[in-house]
Write a structure and sequence with these properties.
Blueprint (H helix, E strand, L loop, with lengths): L2 H18 L4 E10 L6 H11 L9 E7 L3 E3 L4 E3 L16 E2 L6 E10 L2 E4 L1
Parallel strand pairs: 1-2
Antiparallel strand pairs: 1-6, 3-4, 3-5, 6-7
Helix pairs in contact: 1-2
């Protein structure tokens, strides 16, 4: 249910971008959603389809890039995807630490239609 207000905000951001460029409509919104961001892409899509009606975003596509959660190994100074039931770095065997990779959530870019042209914001 917490996807509802964030989807409203995505539509506000895209609508604002369209207005700044005197665009007729938004054609595509690209999102980056981390595995541990707390947001579910399918729920965002569901709310988007409903909330976009009557806005410049109506009919726009959502393209969601999912980011896997990664752990950090201080010994190797590298990131890795943790295996189930293990915190061990696959390169050196030392236990890693949680990182911020996989917590991302942002609008990557917006494509808008300005008459006969298409523009990426």
């Amino acid at each position: 249910m917490h996807e509802y207000p964030i989807t409203e905000q995505i539509i506000r951001i895209a609508t604002s971008a369209a207005q700044v460029h005197n665009a007729e409509r938004v054609t595509l919104i690209r999102l980056v959603v981390g595995e541990q961001s707390g947001f579910v892409g399918d729920s965002i899509q569901m709310y988007f389809d409903i909330l976009a009606e009557g806005t410049p975003c109506q009919g726009a596509s959502l393209d969601i890039e999912y980011i896997k959660t990664q752990w950090f190994c201080p010994k190797c100074d590298s990131f890795y995807i943790r295996q189930p039931m293990s915190f061990t770095c696959p390169q050196c065997g030392q236990d890693g630490l949680p990182s911020d990779k996989g917590k991302e959530f942002y609008v990557k870019d917006i494509e808008i239609e300005t008459g006969s042209d298409q523009c990426v914001q």
